[in-house]
Design brief:
elongated, alpha+beta
Length: 508
C-alpha cells in the first residue's frame, strides 16, 4: 500500500464518497480523493503555523502576543549551553498584578544573578547611566539644594521639611535644645512623629566638641536628649587616652595587648605569653603564670595544686605531694622501734614496725622478699599463716593473684584446674627430706616428689633357752628345730622419731 503524496496547498473542497462509487485504488481514485485533500490541508496549515510562531528561524509577529500564566516566569531566553534569562512578573497570587518584575539569569539549577525592579507605584522614571554620571559630576562641584527653615514654634508639629536648623536658645515641645540642631523627620509620617535630631554646641571654650542626639515619639512629643561620645568624652579606638571615673562592663571586654593596673608606684600587668597567661608585679618582676598545660607556676616554679596531692605511699615522683593520710599510712607502716636489718646494701633491708609495742610485727612485703624469697617453706607455732604466707596444704590457688609463687614452683605440686589455678605443696603430716640432687644417696628422686615409708632390710636371731627334760634329767641336751619360725610383733602403726607438730607454710 503506497503513501499519499502531500502537497503544500490548501485544497478548497473535500469530496465525499457517494453511493454507487466504486472502490478502486489509485492516485485519482474517488476513494482516495478526500484523503488526499485532508493531507494537503494538514501540510499547508503546519507550514503556515511554523512560519508564524515556530521554534526556529526568524519570526515576525504582527499584532499583540499575549502570554497568560499565573506564575512568576513569563518568557525564557535560552542559550546554546542550556543557560537562560527569564523574564518574571509578580503573579496574581502575590497581590500585585505584575507590579514587580525581574530579569534572572540561571545556569543549570543555580541562579547566577538577577536585575530586580521593586514594586511600581504610579509612573516611574529609569535613571540612565548618562543621567547618573551627569548629576554625580554636578554634585561634586555644587552644593545640594536642601530646604531648611528657622523653626521657632513651641510644638514640633506642622513642619513639612526633611531637615531644619534651630537658632540659639529656642525650644521644641517646651524643651530647650542645644545651640544648633539638625532635625530629621520621618518621610511617611506627619506632626514630627518619630523625629530625630543632632545638636551641636559650638563656641564653648570648656567643651567645644559637645554633641547630642534628641528624639520625639509617635505623637511628636519630645522624649529626651543623649550625649554622643566623641574623643573628648568617649573611648577612642586607637591612640593613647586617659579615662576617668568608674567604668562598668556588662559583657566581656577584650584587651588584645594586655591589661595594666597601676598605683602606689607599681603596676600589675596581665598579658599572654607563648605558652601561658600571666600576672606580673612590676616591683618584684615576678610572674604568676597559668600555663597552657594546666599547671600553675610562680616565675616558672610549679605551684602545688589540690590535684597534685596523693594518698599513695609508694610514689617515686617529685611532682606529687603526700597528704596527711599518706603520711599517717607511711608512719603506721614504718619502724616505730629499732632500726632496719641490713641484707647487703641500702636496697636490701627488712624494715619492721610495731602496731602496738610488744605485739604483732608488720613487715613490708616488698622489702621482705629480699630476705625470704617467694617459695620458701617455714614452720610456725600458730594455726594461722602469717601475712604473706600460705598453708602448705595442697590447696589450688590463683595463678594471677600469686603470680610470683606460680613463677617459682609452677605445676610441680599440681596443675590445679590447668588454666587459672595451681596447687601448693601438701606438707601436712610429712617429714621433710632434702632433695638428693645427684648425690646418689636417695637415688632417682625428683624435686617435690612424695615417698612412702620403708624399712631398711635386716634380720633377727632366734635364741633357745636351756630347760630340763624328762629323759635326761638335769644334763644339757641339744635341740634342733626343723621348721621356720618368726619373732613376736611389737610397736605401733608406723616408724617415727620423737617429734612436734608445727604449721608448714610457703612464702607467697
Amino acid at each position: 500500500m503506497a503513501n499519499a503524496k502531500e502537497l503544500n496547498q490548501y485544497t478548497q473542497n473535500v469530496r465525499l464518497i457517494e453511493p454507487g462509487d466504486r472502490v478502486i485504488g489509485g492516485t485519482d481514485a474517488p476513494i482516495n480523493q478526500p484523503l488526499q485533500a485532508l493531507a494537503n490541508r494538514t501540510l499547508y496549515l503546519k507550514t503556515q503555523v511554523e512560519s508564524k510562531i515556530g521554534n526556529k528561524g526568524t519570526q515576525v509577529i504582527e499584532g499583540q502576543l499575549n502570554i497568560q500564566t499565573n506564575a512568576w516566569e513569563k518568557i525564557r531566553f535560552t542559550n546554546g549551553d542550556g543557560s537562560y534569562w527569564r523574564f518574571e512578573t509578580a503573579p496574581v497570587s502575590e497581590g500585585e498584578n505584575g507590579a514587580r518584575f525581574n530579569y534572572v539569569f540561571t545556569s543549570g539549577s543555580r541562579e547566577i544573578g538577577r536585575v530586580h525592579f521593586p514594586r511600581v507605584s504610579g509612573s516611574e522614571s529609569v535613571a540612565y547611566q548618562s543621567w547618573v554620571e551627569a548629576n554625580a559630576a554636578r554634585l561634586a562641584t555644587d552644593k545640594m539644594n536642601v530646604a531648611t527653615t528657622n523653626y521657632y514654634a513651641d510644638q514640633s508639629g506642622g513642619y513639612t521639611k526633611s531637615g531644619f536648623y534651630r537658632s540659639n536658645g529656642r525650644q521644641l515641645d517646651g524643651n530647650a535644645l542645644p545651640t544648633m540642631e539638625i532635625h530629621i523627620a520621618h518621610p511617611e509620617v506627619v506632626n514630627g512623629a518619630h523625629a530625630r535630631g543632632i545638636g551641636f554646641s559650638y563656641g564653648s571654650a570648656s567643651n567645644p566638641f559637645h554633641l547630642v542626639t534628641s528624639a520625639w515619639d509617635a505623637n511628636g512629643r519630645y522624649i529626651g536628649m543623649r550625649t554622643v561620645l566623641t574623643e573628648e568624652n568617649g573611648v577612642m579606638l586607637s591612640s593613647d587616652q586617659t579615662v576617668g571615673g568608674i567604668k562598668t562592663f556588662t559583657s566581656k571586654a577584650v584587651f588584645n595587648a594586655g591589661l595594666s593596673v597601676s598605683g602606689n608606684g607599681k603596676s600589675a600587668d596581665i598579658h599572654t605569653g607563648p605558652k601561658d597567661i600571666y600576672l606580673r608585679n612590676s616591683k618584684s618582676s615576678k610572674y604568676l603564670q597559668l600555663k597552657d598545660d594546666g599547671t600553675l607556676t610562680y616565675s616558672d616554679v610549679k605551684i602545688a595544686l589540690m590535684s597534685d596531692k596523693s594518698d599513695a605511699v609508694n610514689l617515686d615522683s617529685t611532682d606529687n605531694l603526700a597528704t596527711s593520710k599518706a603520711v599517717k599510712t607511711a608512719y603506721d607502716n614504718s619502724i616505730r622501734r629499732g632500726g632496719a636489718v641490713g641484707l647487703g646494701g641500702q636496697n636490701h633491708q627488712i624494715a619492721i614496725g610495731w602496731d602496738t609495742p610488744g605485739l604483732i610485727a608488720r613487715v613490708d612485703n616488698n622489702v621482705m622478699n629480699v630476705g625470704v624469697p617467694v617459695g620458701a617453706v617455714a614452720y610456725f607455732a600458730q594455726d594461722v599463716p602469717p601475712f604473706g604466707w600460705l598453708k602448705a596444704n595442697g590447696a589450688a590457688v590463683s595463678r594471677t593473684i600469686y603470680a610470683n609463687l606460680f613463677a617459682a614452683i609452677g605445676e610441680r605440686y599440681g596443675r590445679g584446674d590447668g588454666r587459672t589455678t595451681f596447687n601448693l605443696p601438701d606438707l601436712r603430716g610429712e617429714f621433710i627430706r632434702s632433695w638428693d640432687d645427684g648425690r646418689a644417696i636417695d637415688r632417682n628422686r625428683v624435686l617435690g616428689s612424695w615417698q612412702a615409708d620403708e624399712f631398711r632390710s635386716h634380720s633377727h636371731g632366734i635364741g633357745v633357752n636351756r630347760m630340763s627334760d624328762t629323759d635326761r634329767g638335769s644334763n644339757p641336751s641339744t635341740v634342733s628345730v626343723d621348721t621356720v619360725g618368726q619373732t613376736d610383733p611389737a610397736g605401733g602403726i608406723e616408724t617415727r622419731p620423737r617429734n612436734i607438730a608445727l604449721l608448714a607454710c610457703i612464702k607467697a
